[in-house]
Amino acid sequence: MRISHKRKVQLKLQKRIKAATAVTQKPVTKAAVKQAAPVAAAKPQVDVKKTEAPAGNVAVTVSLTPKQQQVLGIVANNAEGINPKSIGLEAGQEDSKAASWATGALKKLVEEGLVERIQLAGNKVVYKTL
Q1: Residue 77 CA to chain centroid, in angstroms?
Q2: DSSP assigned state of 115
Q3: Using an 8 Å Cβ cutoff, are 83 and 127 in contact?
Q4: What is the pLDDT of residues 38-62, one digit of tens each?
Q5: What is the dihedral of CA 129, 108, 102, 99, to 10 degrees?
Q6: Measured distance CA(58)–CA(6) in Å, rounded
Q7: Inter-helix orientation angle 98-112/66-77, to 10°
């Protein structure tokens, strides 16, 4: 049982690693650094106004698992907000497990700033995209 558990954990980690490696850049070699250094030295003055990016056009790259991508898609389709149980039901989960299935992915999405958590009366929570 321990070996099978270890295999499952490794497979889950590899899924996350594959999503993260698609975003990373290629490694920089010493030859590329030597070639780039003279170009930077030849252009000492830089226009500051051109290098500043507008706040609205900043792209954020986040590595998400397929489950998190599915939950993000469901939340994005419901602009007025949706609760975790409804998210799980739309994803095809059983009625009894729907809310607990979605909460793990929702926590990660809230941490990354892709989804907003809104607390309603009592213990009711609604999630919306930002």
Answers
A1: 17
A2: E
A3: yes
A4: 544 444 444 444 444 444 444 556 6
A5: -90
A6: 39
A7: 90
Q: Which among 96, 93, 95 has a CA at the least distance from the CA of 74?
A: 93
Contact yes or no for 115/109 (Cβ under 8 A): yes
Nearest alpha carbon to residue 108 among 16, 10, 23, 18 = 16
| Digit-coded pLDDT (tens) for 61-78 | 667 888 999 999 999 998
Using the predicted structure, report yes or no on whether residue 33 has a pLDDT greater than 60: no
Phi, psi of 60 (to 5 degrees): -115, 125
Q: Please choose, from the candidates 51, 47, 64, the residue with its C-alpha nearest in 3D space to the C-alpha of residue 113.
A: 64
Cα distance between residue 124 and residue 118, in whole Å: 9
Full-model pTM: 0.53
